[in-house]
Amino acid sequence: MSRQDYALRIWGVRGTIPTPIGQTLRYGGNTVCLSADLGVERYLVLDCGTGLRMFGNAIASRQQGVERHYSVFLSHYHFDHIQGLPFFTPLYDAHSVITFHGFKSLGRPVRQVLEEFIAPPYFPVRLAGVPSKVNYVDADALPVTVSDVEVSCLPLRHPDGSLSYRLRHEGKTIVFATDHEFGDEATDNALVRFSEGADHLIYDATYQQSEYESLRRGWGHSTWYAAVNTARQAKVKNLILFHHHPDHSDRELDEILKVARRDFPATEIAQEGMELRF
Ligand SMILES: [Zn+2]
Ligand SMILES: [Zn+2]
Fold it and tell me: What is the pTM of this model?
């Protein structure tokens, strides 16, 4: 029997804050979220930015009263990666079983971080009391298996920390490396090894080189140029520029893509609705 491909769908591409304005709508204005349907009512989710609401709505349009399992992997807890969570309809469905994987931040386990965030006065409903069955797993160095996908993580360089996730399924690999500032040799080399030969590398390309050099060093993000360098060193098949700056219009992103492709032809730029096969 031939292998069953999965599709990782991108629901949110934007870093920092949603950008619902005309000049950014082609690539998309929602913050970070991706999901893969692994069949038999099992879903893998990467990050819970505002794109998560659209994924939840897509699920809500399916048959009701069915038990569904969600394995959610959080890169970190900055707003643009969790702000969609209170509006994720499966949270409020008693048939949902949701497992959050994330790292212990400032001594607080993932459960505590999320339960403090989804509670008054920030939100009128408490995560601690939602009807779905919610589990929490503090990430460690060991891979986790979800259905037949192996998920591994690697720490990145970012204020308050961030994790890269690698999804492996029957010889195909996707690396999700958002919110990472290049320039620390040990971390960069570790990410190259982690991404070696990947089919898709999704990489933080928040800044233009000039923006990074003049203003944003130490803010925890990278450039398309760092993305291309990593893709080349890791010999990945396909590079996806990700975590678009809120001030970058569709036109500027077109321009970044054009320039990046001169150095690494197999480059794409993340767009809402894009699907990566693995
Ligand atoms: Zn971010
Ligand atoms: Zn961040």
Answer: 0.97
